[in-house]
Design goal:
Shape: globular
Number of strands: 20
Number of helices: 1
Distance between the termini: 27 Å
Strand content: over 45%
Largest sheet: 4 strands, mixed
Number of domains: 1
Length: 248
């Protein structure tokens, strides 16, 4: 599953113009509302003043499974997830005869890596897919998680956009929200390293100071250029512009 031939559907270009250096930026997606989903950092980069950062998404959606663990000590302690197995998933849609074409995956934990298989015909809702957890070890020292993810550019790794802890066997519905946010986290120093892909963040605390990119009401737009500045009070200001042509 190299992804080299996948179509790129949206481009994001961030221009860092807030006057500061070594600023850690992240992108993240809103958590699905089906259950208690967590929000991981999708992609991340550290920029100096007037640097730019381009991110590309490809068309497919991916289901993934992995583990959650803690890293660091004291104030640097973080909860991080890692993707161990993934597969392309098609969201449930309505067929011409009015039937729902379901998307269901069977998932089993406990092996060296999780196992994900096509689950066949199980009812799910439109725009969603269903994980059916078939095997979940108890008290083996691991915290198992699953969710959905996207690639950054063709052939890139599949990074998590949302995760949920597997607490029991049975079905769990995942309804991806296809939006993304830019957020300026902090200035990177030796004592405060950059956030990494898979680090869990508090969506409610980050959302209000983040820049939202939503292509759903932008027609044929393919590129969103985002400029980050700082106002007189030191608060982030986000300017967005959508265009129909991809970057050169």
């Amino acid at each position: 599953m190299s992804g080299e031939d996948e179509d790129e559907v949206h481009w994001f270009r961030l221009l860092h113009n807030s006057g500061s250096t070594q600023d850690n930026y992240i992108m993240f997606a809103p958590p699905p509302t089906d259950a208690d989903f967590q929000t991981p950092v999708w992609v991340t980069n550290t920029l100096d003043h007037q640097d730019s950062w381009e991110v590309h998404t490809t068309a497919p959606m991916f289901a993934w499974a992995g583990r959650q663990y803690t890293t660091g000590q004291g104030p640097d302690k973080k909860t991080r997830i890692t993707v161990e197995k993934s597969c392309e998933v098609h969201l449930a849609k309505q067929t011409e005869d009015g039937q729902i074409n379901p998307a269901t995956l069977h998932i089993s934990f406990g092996g060296e890596v999780p196992d994900i298989q096509d689950g066949g015909k199980t009812t799910t809702k439109l725009g969603a897919f269903t994980f059916d957890v078939k095997n979940l070890p108890e008290n083996d020292g691991s915290t198992y998680v699953f969710g959905f993810g996207k690639r950054n550019r063709p052939g890139g790794e599949i990074f998590p956009c949302a995760s949920i802890v597997a607490t029991k066997t049975g079905e769990a519905t995942v309804t991806p929200i296809i939006k993304l946010y830019f957020y300026k986290s902090h200035s990177v120093t030796g004592d405060k390293p950059a956030l990494e892909t898979g680090d869990l963040i508090d969506f409610q605390n980050f959302e209000g100071k983040a820049g939202l990119i939503d292509f759903s009401d932008q027609g044929a737009a393919m590129l969103c250029t985002v400029i980050n500045k700082t106002d007189e009070m030191g608060n982030p200001v986000w300017h967005t512009a959508y265009t129909n042509d991809p970057p050169n």
